[in-house]
Design a protein that fits this description.
5 helices; 40% helix; alpha/beta; 6 strands
């Protein structure tokens, strides 16, 4: 089965909860999974040959959480073109703010710009509609895991 690196950006723990649920589901499907609460560029580079699942909340004015902002900057500034990368993205946000899911959308835009291939659609979870994000994310992850080779 596939090797999956889960890279988490969280402030209050919701994205981490979603990531831990995703880790369990993907392992149950037979994938080899590693979760990174503060992912490094070195770890990211390894999963460029495999699969990356980015799960991030949004903070401030559509900003990335401190736990994933350095990785985003490193990917932007040091990686460049990465057409071999296959990834999934779960963005958590709150539609009562102007930049709903801004961090996840920025991460997706960066990876698309660098030629990466997103597997499936990006999942956006609105805290205003879904106070328990794992209720929405678990079925998405189950489906996403079946798309991995």
């Amino acid at each position: 089965m596939a090797q999956v690196g889960i890279f988490v950006g969280t402030v209050y723990g919701n994205a981490l909860l979603v990531a831990e649920e995703a880790e369990t589901i993907l392992r149950e499907q037979g994938h080899e999974v590693k979760l990174f609460e503060e992912g490094t560029l070195e770890a990211w580079q390894f999963y460029r040959q495999h699969y990356a699942l980015v799960i991030t909340s949004t903070t401030g004015q559509g900003d990335l959480p401190d736990s994933i902002a350095p990785l985003f900057a490193a990917i932007r500034d040091e990686v460049g073109f990465q057409p071999e990368l296959k990834y999934g993205l779960i963005a958590l946000g709150d539609s009562s703010y102007d930049n709903f899911c801004g961090a996840g959308r920025a991460f997706d835009a960066l990876l698309q710009e660098q030629g990466a291939t997103r597997i499936g659609e990006m999942l956006e979870i609105d805290a205003m509609e879904q106070p328990e994000p794992e209720v929405v994310s678990c079925p998405w992850v189950e489906n996403w895991g079946t798309l991995l080779k």
